[in-house]
Every structure is written in C-alpha cells, then in structure tokens.
Amino acid sequence: MAAPKKGRSASAQSRPGRSLAFILIAIAALTGGMFLSGHPTPRLGIDLAGGTSITLTAKNEPGQPNAINKTNMNTAVDIMNRRVNGLGVSEAEVQTQGSDNIIVNIPKGTNSKEARDQVGTTAKLYFRPVLATEVSGSAASASPSPSASSSSSSKATDKATEKATSSSSASPTSSATSQGRAVTDALKADSTPSASSSASSSASPSASSSASPSATSSASASAAATKLQAQYTALNCADKAQRAKAGEGSKATDPTVACGKNSSGQWQKYVLGPAEVSGTDIKSASAVFDTQSAAGWKVTMEFTSGGSKKFANITGKLAQNQSPQNQFAIVLDGDVVSDPFVQQALTGGNAEISGSFDQTEAQSLANMLKYGALPLTFKESSVTTVTAALGGEQLHAGLIAGAIGLGLVVIYLVVYYRGLSIIAIPSLLVSGALTYVIMALLGPTIGFALNLPAVCGAIVAIGITADSFIVFFERIRDEIREGRSLRPAVERAWPRARRTILVSDFVSFLAAAVLFIVTVGKVQGFAFTLGLTTVLDVVVVFFFTKPLMTLLARRKFYASGHKWSGLDPKALGAKPPLRRTRRPSAPVDPKEA
How many Å from the N-terminal Cα to the C-terminal Cα in the chain? Predict the structure, then answer.
C-alpha cells in the first residue's frame, strides 16, 4: 500500500503535541483570567438567581404620533438605569425589546414594589436655585461650573466663562461652620412666604428678619431650616447609600439636599431651594457645536410660553447674587446633572448651557432635559417575580438534565466506540471547560447572564460536539474497512471528516445567528449559547481531538486493532489487504543448437 504523501499533512501528523499544548495553555490562561476578574462563576439571569422582570410598553401622548423612536427609547432606558441604580442595585438590567418595549430585570434582594414604582413613573426634572454647595467626601479643590446664557446674546463671556462652583474646599464636618450658619439663614429666609423661593432673598439678612408673619410660622421655618442644615452637614455624597436617600420625600415646593458630580468627577453636595421651573416647561433641548466662537459643545434649550416667564424670573434674581447663589441646579430624579451659573436674566424663551463639554456629555445632558417633556408614557405589560428558591430549583433541574444528557452520550460512546471513547470523553470535558470559563468571563465583560434557555442551548451543544467526533471516527473506520492500517487511515479520513464537520457547524452557527437577530429576550440566550458552543466545537476538534487521535494511533493497542480499541478490522468487516503477486512464467523451449 502506498505511503501517505509528504508535506503539510505529514508535518501536522508528526507534531500533534503543539496543538494540544496550545489549547491547554489557552484553557489555563482563560481560567486564570476568570479568577483574576473576581467572577469564578457565570452570572445568573433572573429565572435562575431569582428577582423581578418588568416589561414596560411605551405609549404615544395625544398629538404626538411619532414620539416612539429609538432616541426617546434610549433616553428612557438611561433614566430608568439611573433610577434602578439609585435603589442600590448593582446588577440590574434595563434594555429595549423591539421598538416599543423596555425590559427591566432586577435581581433578588431588591424591593420589587419600590422598583416598579420607580421605573414606571414619569421622570421628575426641576430647575432649583443653589443655596449652598461644597465638595463632598475627601477634600478637593473647587471645580469650574458651566454657564447659562441667553441664546440671543452675542457676548462670548456669557457663553464660555467658567467660575468656581464653591469657594470651600474642605471636607464637611459635623461642627458648625460659618458657611453652615449662612446656609441656615438662607434656608430660613427661603422658607418664608415673602421670599418667593429665590436665592436672592435667601441671601439677604433683612429678608430673613422681616419675612416672618407670626412667631409660629417663624419657629416652624427655623425648625425646618435646622433639620435641613443637619441633613446637609451629615450628607456624604461619596457614599452610594446616602446618595440614594438624599432629599428622599421632599416636595418640589420644599428646599432639599441633593448630590451630583462636578466637572472634575468629584461628588458635590448641595442645598437647593424650591423648584422654580419643571421639566414640562421645556419644549425642546439639543446638543450643538459652537462654530462661531469655537467654544466647543453646548446645550440649547427652548421653553414653553409659561416656562419662558418662569425661567426669566428666576435667572433675573440669580444674576444679582454671588457664587454659588447665582447658580441653578438641573435636578433629575433627585440627582444634580448640571449646575450652571447665571450672569444676566435670560429672556426670550431660549437659553443655552456652555462650558467644557465634550460631545457625549452635551448629548447626555440634552437628552435628560428633553426627557422632562418627553411625550411618552409607559404601561406595565407584565411583571414576573421569581423567588430565589424557585430560581435555584430551575438551575438544579437544568444541571440534572445536562448531567443526564452527558451521561447518555458517554454510555453510548463507551458501548459503541469502546477505546475511542478515551478520545471523545476528554474532548467533551475540554469543550465544557472552555464553555464554562468563557461564560464566566462574558458576565462582567458584556453583561451576559446565564438563563434557563441558555442552559438548554448548552445541553443541545453536547449532541453537536459528540456528532463531530462520530463523523471523524466513522471516517477512520471506513478507511480501515478498505484495508488500510490505522495511521494512514487517520490521515486519509481527516480531510473528509473535516469538510463534513465544518459544513455541519456552519449550518448550526447560521441558525443560531439568525435566531439571535430576529428574537428578543431570553430566547437570545439560547441562540447565543448555541452559537458559542458551535464555534468551540470547531476549536476542540481541530486542536484537541485530531491531535490526540494522531498520538494514540501510534500506540500498539490501537494500531494493532485490539478488539476493545473500537478499531478491530475483523469486527468492522475489513477487506483483506491487496497484495501484488507475480504472474507464473511460461515454460521456455530449449533452443536447438
């Protein structure tokens, strides 16, 4: 029988150890990365870990037939993310589903009723005057604040000038400070009827002394101011739990405390006066690049007729004050998203916020401003609550189903393929290890959550992986039936088996990709897992199964066709090897002399 051709195939046959070393090193590296990331187990979805899944359907307001669009839906997702995170939930997911649905997945340990109330209500956006502010947490220097100006103004200083948001750079303490006493006086003045809820009047001592109509109201205002001052002094915005509770229960007509990040990324705490302008007073907002003065990105706002009057009134009062009481805070759901200062009364119904914005920051602020007047309401379509016990039972059942499927495949391989199962079973284990490690890494990387359909996809993948081994083994057996010895049979069978495996896996991957694209929700978990395991099947067959088969083909147990090797020529009905024989020579008559 002719020897196999030399060249690439012979080289690959003689160096199978390199492929085995490559895949084992890859598994070790991925496993090390998994433990270094601090996530040694895959992230579980709501149906396995327990939690609440809320489906919200967007509805158009009357007169706004085209309000449901990608921009508005993405803005709604951003707002709901802020709300859910404000509940102290670190693993909550908010994502769009289709064109008009939003799915909110909140894991166990969260008050589901509070979460439903938070995500289902309209965003609350207010413009409040700043009474006092300082950097919260560790001591830090004051940071610049963007400025607000009328869009009709031609003065560059009104558009790009930056000033410090606070002259204080010290950490807040529990002791009384001069700033604390000034804040208390401002709160007292601001809470009186004659103060008109303005920062200007709150800064005036005379207003504070003359605004009290009676001793009772004065005492009540003093008690409220003292209470708010205590909250402000104790507030540490660097603490996530305190940020979530800052200003909790306060009304739009009451002074409050709030937190927000300044332009340096530091947490800042605020004392804010009553709301002067609400989000419904904003007609539109957009992020534009200032090409005239080259001041960079800015946010333009257009107010309604009623909002224009309110905004002109409050900016006129703020412009007369000193920093920080010439600032107004844009407060979204209790968080300060911007705190521009004012240099003049902004009239005409248009205004702009300028400063050291980049494109992303400007667009984010514009979207938040628009959401206050977003013509969208959300209806709660469905709420699914899975307890931790039920999720654990489903996970346990899924693992049992996977173990049963794997056990049946192993039994089949041992009974039918005998010694070849020593190749198939380690290949299945390598495929399972790669799948587990990659799923664990995808959790913190892209937010992949292992749900029940994804577990089903992993179970189906056991059959796909085993099918690749069967194709390869049967090709080898076909070559042995033709009368070839094992080593040439392995090398001749591989090109044919490889082609079949690639075509089969390509069809499976294409089906998984189509399913992932056209479906939404949990079905995507099944499609993603199926596609991932299909790709890993190709990797395992090429870099583990084939090299391992090449190495074992050199062993006498397999090369001699032992009856327990699964490659016994007699059991396979192999043809006897073809042997060339010489033809008998015809008798030659002796020549006569």
Answer: 46
Where in the chain are all domains bearing CATH 3.30.1360.200? Answer: 125-137+252-357
Q: Where do runs of H (alpha helix) occur along 169-214? A: 178-190, 199-202, 205-210
**Which residues are bridge partners to 261 per DSSP?**
267
Q: In this predicted structure, what is the pLDDT of residue 156?
A: 30
DSSP calls for 109-122 = TS-HHHHHHHHHSP
Predicted structure pTM score: 0.53
- Banded pLDDT at 44 (limits 50, 70, 90): confident
Domain with CATH 1.20.1640.10 in the chain: 21-38+387-560
User: What is the token pair recorded at 407?
Assistant: 């056990």
pLDDT band for 540, please (50, 70, 90 cuts): very high
Token pair in block for residue 584: 């008998």
Residue 58 identity (one-letter amino acid): A
CA gap 96, 83 in Å, rounded:
16
Considering the domain delimited by 51-122+381-386, tell me its CATH architecture: 2-Layer Sandwich (3.30)
Host H or E run for residue 559: helix 556-559
Query: How many helices (H) and strands (E) would you count in the chain?
Result: 21, 17
CATH architecture type of domain 125-137+252-357 = 2-Layer Sandwich (3.30)
Q: What is the pLDDT of residues 324-361, one digit of tens each?
A: 888 888 887 778 888 888 888 888 888 888 777 778 77
Q: What share of the chain is helix, strand, coil (3-state, %, to 5)?
A: 50, 20, 30
Angle (nearest 5°) at CA 144 between 138 and 145 = 110
CATH 3.30.70.3220 domain span(s) along the chain: 51-122+381-386
Superfamily of domain 21-38+387-560: Multidrug efflux transporter AcrB transmembrane domain (1.20.1640.10)
Query: Considering only CA atoms, which of 99, 97, 118 is closest in space to residue 52?
Result: 118
DSSP state of 327: B
As a whole number of angstroms, the distance between CA 238 and CA 248 comes to 17
